[in-house]
Automatic annotation (TrEMBL):
Coiled coil: none annotated. The keyword Oxidoreductase applies. Keywords: NADP, Oxidoreductase. InterPro entries: NAD(P)-bd_dom_sf, Sc_DH/Rdtase_CS, SDR_fam. This is NAD(P)-binding protein. Pfam families: adh_short_C2. PANTHER family: NADPH-DEPENDENT ALDEHYDE REDUCTASE-LIKE PROTEIN, CHLOROPLASTIC-RELATED, RE15974P.
Length: 248
């Protein structure tokens, strides 16, 4: 697959799954605009890894849930590269909160980053995308996991919204030649996922995966490549669960 000449916006694109996707698509020839929230060191590390063609990587500090920041991200991308071909709203937060634990602040923070941000990034970017453009949203395989514990309620609620956005946004944008799908990783060994989890809990996730291991960011990046290929054009409004066959 070649993405030469394509321009990709990926929020949260400098660490974890986002960094793996940025590196993978850059290797396929794409120009990457990757954002980060506050960790400038992750941007420096990504720039260093992709220094062989630094003209095709731009890292920006940006608030993924802020509409003015989103508008600036879109305008900066157009000013720098002249086009937008692929949008991947990857930035997200994982607040482990059940019904009784969730404060209004928790709720607003989770939905602002995980739902409002992707919604308005797609809204602001889509008018600048030509036929053949692709939007790939990020959900989680945990939305389909029957054994998930109640403290995932807030996080899963935001990702449930993403899955509905995927289905209905595809209906709106498909007539314009823009495909919309979502990828739903299973448990993946990123800093975000591992934070605060006991070894016992991690072992439980691992046992649910036939391969006997957690996913790696590179596993998800490989699935992303499939969904962005020209051959994926007839896949529309779908949530693809990249989870190693995780028992749900």
């Amino acid at each position: 697959m070649s993405l030469t000449g394509k321009v990709v916006i990926i929020t949260g694109g400098t660490k974890g799954i986002g960094a793996a996707i940025s590196e993978s698509l850059h290797a396929q020839g794409a120009s990457i605009v990757a954002t980060y929230a506050s960790d400038a060191s992750s941007a420096e590390e990504l720039n260093k890894k992709l220094s062989t063609d630094s003209k095709r990587i731009l890292t920006l500090q940006s608030d993924a849930g802020s509409i003015p920041a989103i508008e600036k991200l879109v305008s900066t991308t157009l000013k720098t590269f002249g086009q937008i071909d692929i949008v991947i709203p990857n930035a997200g937060i994982l607040l482990m909160k059940g019904l009784s634990q969730t404060t209004e602040s928790d709720f607003d923070k989770a939905f602002t980053t995980n739902v409002k941000g992707p919604w308005f990034l797609c809204q602001k970017a889509a008018p600048h995308m030509k036929s053949g453009g692709k939007i790939l949203l990020l959900s989680t395989s945990l939305t389909a996991n029957s054994s998930i514990t109640p403290n995932y309620m807030l996080y899963n609620a935001t990702k449930g919204a993403i899955e509905q956005m995927t289905r209905l946004m595809a209906k709106e944008l498909s007539p314009k030649g823009i495909s919309v799908n979502a990828i739903a990783p299973g448990p993946t060994a990123t800093e975000l996922f591992l934070a605060g989890k006991s070894e016992e809990l991690l072992q439980g996730f691992t046992k649910a995966i036939p391969a006997g291991r957690l996913g790696q960011p590179e596993d998800i990046a490989g699935a992303v490549k499939l969904l962005l290929s020209d051959e994926s054009g007839w896949i529309q409004g779908q949530v693809v669960r990249a989870n190693g066959g995780m028992v749900v």
